[in-house]
Amino acid sequence: MYNIREVLIINSNTEGVVMNIEVIKEFVMQNWLVIVVALIILFFVLNVVKTVLKWAIAIIIIAALLIYSGISIDQIKQTVTDVQSSTMDTLKKEATSMMLKEASKATYTKGQDGAFTITSPNVEIKGRTNSDKVDVTFRGISVGEWKVDNETIRTFVKQAQENGTAPSS
C-alpha cells in the first residue's frame, strides 16, 4: 500500500513537487471508499451548515484525510515555508529589477531627523542617513530590511538624490 509520502518526490532540479501518477492511482484505488465517504461528508457539511462551524468541520475532515494518507504537519509546514521563501525571493528580484527601471522617476524626501524616503511608482525605500539598512516596500508589500551595501540600493539612492529632493511633509 502506498501513502502520500511516497507520492511526493522533491526534485531539487526543478525546485518543486513532482507527483508520480501511478502511485496516486494506486493510493486512490486502495482507499477509494475512505475518500468517497470524506467527500460526501465534506459536501454535506458545506451545503447544509451555514456558519463558521462548517469551515471548522471542513478543515477537520481535510486534516483527517491528510493524516490518514501519511502527510505530517511538519511536511505541510515545510512546504508552506518553502513556498513563502520562494515567493519572497521572487519579490526581492522583481523589486531589484524595478529599482533599476524606475531610478530616473524616483524622488528623494529628507526628514529633519535624518530619515529619508525614496519613492518611485512601484518601490519605496525608507531609512536613516547614517544607517547601513533600509526598509524596502515593493508595490505596497514590505520585502524586508536590506543592507545599503547592495549595489542596486546605492544606485537607486544616488539617482533619486540626483533627480532632486521633494519637499518634506
3D structure, described in words:
By secondary structure, this protein is α+β, with helices and mostly antiparallel strands. The protein contains six helices and eight strands; from the N terminus they run H-E-E-H-H-H-H-E-E-E-E-E-H-E. Strands 7-6-5-4-3-8 form a six-stranded mixed sheet, covered by helices on one side. Strands 1-2 form a two-stranded antiparallel ribbon. The termini are far apart. Keywords: Membrane, Transmembrane, Transmembrane helix. The chain crosses the membrane at residues 27-46, 52-71.
In short:
The protein is an alpha+beta fold. It has a domain at 84-165. 54% of the residues lie in helices and 22% in strands.
Q: What is the multimeric organization of the chains shown? A: single chain
- Low-confidence spans: 1-18
**Which percent band covers the strand fraction?**
15-25%
Q: How would you sum up the major sheet?
A: 6 strands, mixed
Distance between the termini: 67 Å
Tell me the strand order in the biggest sheet: 7-6-5-4-3-8
Shape by Cα distribution:
elongated
Number of helical stretches of at least 4 residues: 6
Question: Which value, in Å, is the CA radius of gyration?
Answer: 25 Å
Reading the helices and strands in chain order gives HEEHHHHEEEEEHE
Transmembrane segments: 27-46, 52-71
Keywords: Membrane, Transmembrane, Transmembrane helix
